[in-house]
Structures are given as C-alpha cells and as structure tokens.
Amino acid sequence: MGLFDRLSRVVRANINDLVSKAEDPEKVLEQAVVDMQEDLVQLRQAVARAIATQKRTEQQYNKNQSEANSWQQRAQLALSKGDENLAREALVRKKSFSDTAASLKSQLDMQSNQVVTLKRNLIALESKISEAKTKKDMLKARANAAKAQKQLQESMNNIGTSSAMGAFERMEDKVMQIEAESETAAELGGTGIEQQFAALEAGSGVDDELAAMKAQLAGNSAETPILEAADIPSTTAPQDAVIDAELDELRSQLDK
C-alpha cells in the first residue's frame, strides 16, 4: 500500500509540474474570466428559478388564505342564521385552508430568504467578475512585459556566446594585426613621410654647415697677410683644385 501511495504521489507531482509549465498566464486568465461568466449565468438562472418558485408559493399562500377568510365569513353567516351544523362545516373547511396557508407561509419565508441570499451572491459575483476583468488586463500587461524582458535578457546573454559575436571579435583582432604589420613595414622600408622629412632636415644641416665653413674660410683669408710668391708652397694650387672638385661633387649630390 505504501508503494502505491508513493507511486501515486510521484505521478501526481509530475503531472502538476507539467501542467504548471504548460500554463500560459494570459490564456489561464482569459479562461478564468470565461468560467466566472458561466458561473454568473448559472447563478442568474438559479435566482430566476428561486424567484419564480417564490411567486408560485406566494400565489398559493394568498389563495389558501383567501379561502380560509371566505370560509370564516361563511361560518359567521351560518351561525348568525342559526345553522350551527353548517357553521361547523364551514369552520372545518376554513381550518383546512388555514393549515395549508400556514405551511405555505413557512415555505414562502424560507424561499424569500433563499432569494435574498442568491441575489446577494449574484451581486458579489458580478463585482468579482468586474474586478477580475480589471486585474486580468493588468496581469496580462505585466505578463507581456515580463516575457519581453525575459526575451531581451536571453538575447543579451546569447550575444556574448554567439558565433557572430566571436567572428566580430576575431575580425577586430585581425584588423589590428594588419595595422601593426603595415606600421612595421613602413618603418623598415624607410619611405614614410617621417623619413622624407628627416632626409630634408639632414640636407639642410649639411648646407648650413657648408655655408658656415665658407664664411670661416673667407674670414681667415682676409686676416691672413699676403705672402710673397717665394713663400707660397708649390702644392697650394693643386690642393685647392681638389677641394673645389669635392665641393662641386657635394653640390651635385645635394641637388639630386
């Protein structure tokens, strides 16, 4: 017996879990309102039947009470005419109708209480249905917002692990690698704009140094006394020619 109880409990637990997972709040709310509307229809029908029964009982009560009053008057009439036997018979009939009226009065009171209770329940159910409809719209909006938030969060979580994001990051690394290789090639090749400006600056320095040397040589020549032809070494002219040739070579190289 214990084993069957445990198996039954496990089966019911699994079924409840499946039902809970399958429940859609929006659909369940809609169905709940539909069920409440059906209950309202049935309650209205019950109220209508109770009122109809109450009216029939009331009619029967009024009829028997009227008959009882009528036989009461007949009994009085017979007694006033001196016919006691007829008066007694009238009182017997009156008692029968009075007993029936009393029984119907008890039923009528009970039915009246039932109708009042059913009407109160009907009003309460109508109020609950109205409140449920308002809550249903609010809960549906909250459920939709929660679903949207959940989907957004799942999308954000999937972005970090998706193949597209991984490919994007790989391409970013590859572009950075290509840029680094390009900068390295430019530095090694020496043909970049920085190198060109460096060559121009170097050339300007040589020209400035050459101009300074010329100015210095010109100043020394002015201060040096003119020597006699006999004191000038015979190798001066050939050396000057060699220097002039070297200078011309330097100018041509700079011009190129």
Task: Tell me what you see in this structure.
With 256 residues, this protein is mainly α. The chain has two domains: 11-156, Orthogonal Bundle (Helix Hairpins), CATH 1.10.287; 194-219 and 236-256. The protein is 91% helix and 0% strand. It is built from six helices and no strands. The longest helix is centred in the middle third of the chain and has 78 residues, at 84-161. The chain is rod-shaped, with a radius of gyration of 61 Å. Residues 226-235 have low confidence and may be disordered.
What labels would you give this structure?
256 residues; mainly alpha; Helix Hairpins; 6 helices; PspA/IM30 family protein
Write the SSE topology.
Blueprint: H1 2-22, H2 25-80, H3 84-161, H4 163-189, H5 193-223, H6 236-255
Helix pairs in contact: 2-3
Coiled coil: 26-60, 101-188
Protein name: PspA/IM30 family protein
Pfam family, one: PspA_IM30
Mean pLDDT level:
77
End-to-end Cα distance, whole Å, is 111 Å
| Count of distinct structural domains | 2
Unreliable residue runs: 226-235
CATH topology of the largest domain: Helix Hairpins
The best one-word shape is rod-shaped
InterPro entries: PspA_VIPP1
Pfam family, one: PspA_IM30
Keywords: Coiled coil
Protein name: PspA/IM30 family protein
